[in-house]
Amino acid sequence: MKNIISFALLQIACSFTFLPVSQNSALELQGNGGNLIETTCKKTPFYNLCVSTLQSDPRGSSADVAGLARIGADKVKEKATATLGQITGLLTGAKDPKLKMALRDCVDYYNAIIKYDVPVAIEAIAKGNPKFGVQSLNDAANEADACERKFQNQPKFPISDSNKVVHDLSAVVASIVQLLL
Amino acid sequence: MVDTNPFLPVSSSDGSYPTGPQITHRKPIKEHLTIFFGLLAVGLFAALLIGNNGSDNGHVHENQHGSLASSSSKKPEPLQPVSRGPAAGVSEKSNRLSANVNGNLPAYPWNNSMLSWQRTSFHFQPEKNWMNDPNGPMFYKGWYHFFYQYNPNAAVWGDIVWGHAVSKDLIHWLHLPLAMVADQWYDQNGVWTGSATILPNGKIVMLYTGSTVEAVQVQNLAYPADHSDPLLVHWVKYPGNPVLVPPPGTYKKDFRDPTTAWLTSEGKWRITIGSKINKTGIALIYDTKDFINYEKLDGVLHAVPGTGMWECVDFFPVSKTEENGLDTSVNGPGVKHVVKVSLDDDRHDYYAIGTYHEKNGTWIPDQPEIDVGIGIRYDYGIYYAAKTFYDQNKNRRVLWGWIGESDSEAADMKKGWASVQSIPRTILFDKKTGTHLLQWPVEEIESLRLKSNEFNQVSLLPGSVVPLDVGPATQLDILAEFEIDKELLKKATGSNITFSCSASGGAAERGALGPFGLLVLADESLSEQTPVYFYITKGSDGNLKTSFCNDQSRSSAASDVNKQIYGSFLPVLKGENLSLRVLVDHSIIESFAQGGRTVITSRLYPTKAIYEAAKVFLFNNATNASVTASLKIWQMNSAFIRPYPNK
């Protein structure tokens, strides 16, 4: 009996000593559930947005850093697509020519995000050339900025909230991809 | 209104005039003079202080690459023209444009006229879509060959295959069909960068990185399908590929860009491939007899902590004494070896000069404090993934470099293309400094020179801007020399302030001994301008230090383009005048100082200074230095880069 207890204690001790410790290349970190999301998000400019976005996806709890980047990129595309829908909706009802011009320009910027920036980022992460992903996600944030600037002389910026989310989330995911370099 | 301060005020970083006692009522002469000299001293001191805004940050925060002002860490500057000064009878105030901080400018509506102007006339670029790294450059059977990373489907990176072009003179290129596509499991996710080796029997082997179906990075062998075809149109991949897979201890996505091979004293071929261990960049080293079976050497060619992944490693010999290039296998006394790396972390190319120890396959830098990755860059602007080759046709080493865009991807989408290559440069060891390489556009570019204009001993007093009447100014080759009044140099006060181009206020920030140089892609009213200039500072020990900069902050009215100030310290030796060469080719300029000791390449996207509206000026915005400039400026013809007929 004494031996069994000692053996069991030894087993427990061993299992604690050999717990996977995240070190070495940041790339193949063990999916550690919430912990990895939190530590990764601390390295991004918008911690809360990062955590809530990644946790909202079922893949989040078991993803490694590359997987989190992939989830983030998918979310950017999702938010951008929804925002583009808002913009085109506003365009159909718009009468003021200056407002229409601003909205049309934003359509261009959002098309760039959806058709180019996000697909390039996803490909770059998957194929192992992450620097192109960092560049295109930074570009996505810049496209959102460009859209906002189009409304400087307008009384209001109707998609202000969703545009900010697209901008901030792009910056977040760019930081995550940066960790893969 | 009476200008009570006849000397030009120093602009501080927010563009306001220096505050000092406001002269609002008449004071006795003595007090006037005291205040006047006091302001002058303050102004001079402030000018020297302004440069001290942190160290020259060679590590560009990725956020700033091709980014807008809102994400840059430096507060945007109000647009300010370079003042014509009191000498031209114009007071500072009337010259000032309304302060238009970047944040207030609408993102520019790019129209077709502006976008099509951006296409270069004599720089290599495919007819459309995206390009990145140069691959496998070589000279074979009378033709220079150039391959490149290409996306056949879009103006952004992706779906990468090998493009191909040939030229008789490294300038006039003819496009050929794609050399290699992603048709095997071992390169299905990308036919990435590689290098050519020409064997003693004249045959060619090409080693390149493939990203496999599972996105593992492996090295593959390919060779021409028909060695008797001088155009090398068709290529065959070795059926037994891959010939190299990531070795134990190397992450599967940190193993790419094999180099040209060089011979060892045992008659084997040796190559190096970049990788990393944690954050230490390393160059793995392999020997082979047949390019099919490899033995990995223990250890690495070299490693530098903190530099991250080493992409596009290049390794080659340079002669310490001769003015020619050396075949990659050459070694011996009088030969130094260069290690060059492209750093994934900051998107810059670095090199260092050192000694190669053949027996154990290692290399030691001459000066570890400027080791590769932490020291000298090939180019202080946009320049990446560079690769050299030995040109046996003209006995020189030639350098290629990828020049990306610094505008938005939306604009790239609109114009349908992205990226160009630099004009190929010869590489020579700089005997005078012993620490630098000299880069210079290949001489064949001079075949594009048309008519020229010469300007001799143009006097540039402080605050002057001199238009140069050369006709059209979007395709130019400019050679210039600048001499500074020696007396004024001697009299200048020294200080401890360090200057860095990127942390400075650009060409609008006046110092005692700088900035002065050229304004290119500038419109008549200077609302858009790109200064390429020198800035001299004097240390408290009396020693002069020169910086060479390229200021994009006012290059365009558009806000969605890069507005950073590029540049670096420029070694200038006793007795040397300041020399400058600038190639202007629409949306790219390449600037070479001191014969190519320091080089800056930038992409510019003006909205007004295009077509006939683009002009070139000399300027001297220093407060205390008189400069004399002599220049020769050529119009440059197009290189008519086009598809090879009937291919």
From TrEMBL, chain A:
Keywords: Disulfide bond, Signal. CDD domains: CIF_like. Residues 1-15 form the signal peptide. It holds the Pfam family PMEI. GO terms for molecular function: enzyme inhibitor activity. Residues 32-176 form the Pectinesterase inhibitor domain. Belongs to the PMEI family. This is Cell wall / vacuolar inhibitor of fructosidase 1-like. It comes from Durio zibethinus (Durian). The lineage of its organism: Eukaryota, Viridiplantae, Streptophyta, Embryophyta, Tracheophyta.
Automatic annotation (TrEMBL), chain B:
Pathway: Glycan biosynthesis; sucrose metabolism. SUPFAM superfamilies: Arabinanase/levansucrase/invertase, Concanavalin A-like lectins/glucanases. Its EC number is 3.2.1.26. Residues 1-23, 59-98 are annotated as: Disordered. One of its GO terms (cellular component) is vacuolar lumen. InterPro entries: Beta-fructofuranosidase_N, ConA-like_dom_sf, Fructan_Metab_Enzymes, Glyco_hydro_32, Glyco_hydro_32_AS, Glyco_hydro_32_C, Glyco_hydro_32_N, Glyco_hydro_beta-prop_sf. Pfam families: Glyco_hydro_32C (PF08244), Glyco_hydro_32N (PF00251), INV_N (PF11837). This is beta-fructofuranosidase. Residues 19-115 form the Beta-fructofuranosidase N-terminal domain. The gene is LOC111277296. SMART domains: Glyco_32. Keywords: Glycoprotein, Glycosidase, Hydrolase, Membrane, Transmembrane, Transmembrane helix, Vacuole, Zymogen. The chain crosses the membrane at residues 33-51. Residues 444-635 form the Glycosyl hydrolase family 32 C-terminal domain. It comes from the Eukaryota.
